[in-house]
Amino acid sequence: MESCSDVSSLVDEYHAVFGMAVFDSTESLERVLIRDGDWSPGAAAHLVQLAKSYGSFMLRNALAISLVLEVEDGDLGF
After folding, report:
1. Does any domain span residue 15?
2. Is the pTM value of this prediction over 0.85?
3. Of 57, 58, 74, 78, whose CA–CA distance to 66 is shortest?
4. How many domains does the chain have?
């Protein structure tokens, strides 16, 4: 299981993947995740939807809980 300190490296990675581009749609974000992040189309769509629906406050807390409970892949198996 990755530690909490690894989150900053993921943020850096997504900054590099997304760059300074302006995305005109959810689909364009998904295409970049599929092409440059090696995500499947379904997982990319789900990931973008999670970020847009819940935002960093809720997801940060969910991350902390999942780390404490040692839930790495979750029930959906992404």
Report:
1. no
2. no
3. 74
4. 1
